[in-house]
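User: I'm preparing a small set of examples for a lab meeting where we compare how different chains pack in three dimensions. I only have the primary sequence for this one, and I'd like the structure in C-alpha cell form so I can line it up with the others. Please keep the answer compact; I'll paste it straight into my notes.
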Amino acid sequence: ISESTAFLMASMLADVINSGTAYRARQAGFTLPAAGKTGTTNDYVDAWFVGFTPQVVTGVWIGFDQPKTIIRGGYAGEVAVPTWANFMKVATKGHKPEWIARPSDIAGTNVCRLSGLLPNDGCDGVDVVSRDGSVESRSMIYTEYFVRGTQPSAVCSLHPRRSFMDALAGAFGKDTGPPPIPSDSAALPTPPARPTTGTSPGGAAGAGSPAGASREEAEAPRRRGFWSRVLGRGDDNRKEEEEKKRQDEQKKAQEQQKKGGGR
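Assistant: Understood. Below is the C-alpha cell output for the 263-residue chain.
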C-alpha cells in the first residue's frame, strides 16, 4: 500500500486506543503513541487485541483450548486490552513517544465531528447529554487527515452560526438552538482514555496536531459567565433552573411523605 494510505489507516486505528474500544489501554497507564484493533467473537468465546507502536507489534488472545464463553460480556476491550497494555508498558520502557511521520501529500483539516464538513462557529459549542443525564457544551471540532485535494469544501449546516438575538435568549435560559444530542451518537472521546502526554495522531494528547487540535481531543465541559453565555449558550441558567426544579420536587415529595405518615 502507499505511504499515505498506511498513515491514514494508522491514524484511524490510533483512535481505537485513544477514544474507542481499546481506551482501557490509556486507563491502564500506557501513554506512548499507538494504534490497534479489538476483536470479540460470538458468545464471547475469543477476545483479541492487536496493537502497535512504530517499534513494537503485539497481539493478545484470550480464550480456552476447547472453545467456550470466557465470561458473559467479555468484550476484548475489557478482557484483552488491559493485558496488552500491561505487557507493552514493560516492552516499550524507555522508548521515545514517536509516531509515524506524516507524508507530504497528507493534510490535516479541522472538521465537524458530526457532519464531517468544515466547521462553523456553532460547531464549537454543541449541547451533549451525558450518560448520567447532565448536559454539557462540547466542541465538535477536531482534526481529520486527508490526501491533499480530497478535503471537504462545504461548511457544516448542522450547527448554524447563532444570531445575536438567539445568543441573548440563550443567556437567559431561553435557548433557541437545536436540542442536545446523546454523547454516544457524537462519537466523543472518553475523557478517562486520554492521558496528559503523547503526540498526535497516535498519542493521546495531540499537541503536535497541525491545526492545534488532535483527532482525539475532547473539550472539557465549560462553565460560562454572562457575556460568554450571550456569545455562546445559556448553560448556567438552564442548569440552575433544572437544579431548582429538582429541589422543589424533592421538597414536595418529602411533604407528601410526612402527610402520608400522619394519617
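A couple of notes for your slides: Residues 192-200, 204-237 have pLDDT under 50 and may be disordered. The beta strands are 35-40, 47-52, 57-62, 106-112, 126-129, 135-138, 141-147, 181-182.

User: Perfect, thanks.
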